[in-house]
Automatic annotation (TrEMBL), chain A:
This is Antigen presenting cell lectin-like receptor A1. The chain crosses the membrane at residues 20-41. GO terms for cellular component: external side of plasma membrane. InterPro entries: C-type_lectin-like (IPR001304), C-type_lectin-like/link_sf (IPR016186), C-type_lectin/snaclec_domain (IPR050111), C-type_lectin_CS (IPR018378), CD209-like_CTLD (IPR033989), CTDL_fold (IPR016187). Residues 86-202 form the C-type lectin domain. Keywords: Adaptive immunity, Calcium, Cell membrane, Disulfide bond, Glycoprotein, Immunity, Innate immunity, Lectin, Membrane, Metal-binding, Receptor, Signal-anchor, Transmembrane, Transmembrane helix. It comes from Mus musculus (Mouse). It is found in: Cell membrane. PROSITE patterns: C_TYPE_LECTIN_1, C_TYPE_LECTIN_2. Its main location: membrane. The keyword Chaperone does not apply.
């Protein structure tokens, strides 16, 4: 009787240990499998590839420049042909015909881009070097009501990075913005959204 | 006694079934894990990424053209700037005269090799870029001088196209090949001395994105 009991106990312990080992193995393998599936999925959904596919429908040529500083191991940055690269964006000036703000944004969208969002003085200086001082250009900024200015790509409106002309904005009913040249400098001017102007399109570079 | 036996038998069967299930689960998971690791490895070792990185050291800009026919879902074919695009290759006409081996070295330093001509259409495309008063090294040579011509990228010569000028090749000592314009046969190949100086044509495969 006494001998029997210890023997049974030992057997139970042994079985439990084996089962624990088996369960742990299965859990480990499951974790590894899920992890590697996630990694594979991330690679498949790699952003540049999707954007490359999208751009294929809008553009027939890309120009890629070697990046000195490697951005997460990407050594090339690309813009469509005839677009100008600056920082991490590409820019295009639409001068084929003037249009309202809505139409201008549509035209940018048809190129896989949006009306320009200006983040800094350097960026504005770069953009304005491409522009004709006699024309006005829609940018991707509008007043959604009560002087609440909003960028088209949801970039937070930063009062310290605004470049309004002196005395602007000056009319509550002028809810769209153009970049134009006044006297000696480029700056922003609020205008009616239905006015017809040129525009500047912007898209993120594609990194390879 | 009989009951005990039956009871023990049932227990053993039950345990075996559970163990079988556990082992099968582990095997399945192992297989899935290995398979997905292999797939991930394939993605990471993707040729375009590696070649893009290599080209980064030779060139400062690329031009990519939208390819109508999608080559395995890759929609863009890229060549370095100033290189000409045709089919699945990029070409650069070198305007410096050099020995054959130096010409090849110069191509290699750009991530390319001397041109290998695979079709008449390719030769026609190339010759449109050339100056009729000059001759250009091809990636074709006969190192042993025994008439066994070989392409520099190991394309089999015997199965490939040939565009020799009439009566060429004509000298065993001329172990390299240039493409040259002669009247009246126009563009064709001529065997030349490897240590004579000619212009050259570099070729590399496009990068598909």
């Amino acid at each position: 009787m006494m001998q029997e009991r210890p023997a049974q106990g030992q057997v139970v312990c042994w079985s439990l240990r084996l089962w624990m080992a088996a369960l742990i193995s299965i859990l480990l393998l499951s974790t590894c499998f899920i992890a590697s599936c996630v990694v594979t999925y991330q690679l498949m959904m790699n952003k540049p590839n999707r954007r490359l596919s999208e751009l294929h429908t809008y553009h027939s040529n890309l120009i890629c420049f070697s990046e000195g500083t490697t951005v997460s191991e990407k050594v090339w940055s690309c813009c469509p042909k005839d677009w100008k690269p600056f920082g991490s964006y590409c820019y295009f000036t639409s001068t084929d015909s003037r249009a309202s703000q809505n139409k201008s944004e549509e035209k940018c969208s048809l190129r896989g881009a949006h009306l320009v969002v200006i983040h800094s003085q350097e960026e504005q200086d770069f953009i304005t070097r491409m522009l004709d001082t006699a024309a006005g250009y829609f940018i991707g900024l509008s007043d959604v009501g009560n002087s609440q200015w909003r960028w088209i790509d949801q970039t937070p409106y930063n009062d310290r990075a605004t470049f309004w002309h002196k005395g602007e904005p000056n009319n509550d009913y002028e809810k769209c913005v153009i970049l134009n040249y006044r006297k000696t400098m480029w700056g922003w001017n609020d205008i009616d959204c239905s006015d017809e102007e040129n525009s500047v399109c912007q898209m993120k570079k594609i990194y390879l | 006694m009989v009951q005990e036996r039956q009871s023990q038998g049932k227990g053993v069967c039950w345990t075996l079934r559970l163990w079988s299930a556990a082992v099968i689960s582990m095997l399945l998971l192992s297989t899935c894990f290995i398979a997905s690791c292999v797939v991930t490895y394939q993605f990471i070792m993707d040729q375009p990424s590696r070649r893009l990185y290599e080209l980064h050291t030779y060139h400062s800009s690329l031009t990519c053209f939208s390819e109508g026919t999608m080559v395995s879902e890759k929609m863009w074919g890229c060549c370095p700037n100033h290189w000409k695009s045709f089919g699945s290759s990029c070409y650069l006409i070198s305007t410096k005269e050099n020995f054959w081996s130096t010409s090849e070295q110069n191509c290699v330093q750009m991530g390319a090799h001397l041109v290998v001509i695979n079709t008449e259409a390719e030769q026609n495309f190339i010759t449109q870029q050339l100056n009729e008063s000059l001759s250009y090294f091809l990636g074709l040579s006969d190192p042993q001088g025994n008439g066994k011509w070989q392409w520099i990228d190991d394309t089999p010569f015997s199965q490939n196209v040939r565009f020799w000028h009439p009566h060429e090749p004509n000298l065993p000592e001329e172990r390299c090949v240039s493409i040259v314009y002669w009247n009246p046969s126009k563009w064709g190949w001529n065997d030349v001395f490897c240590d004579s100086k000619h212009n050259s044509i570099c070729e590399m495969k496009k990068i598909y994105l």
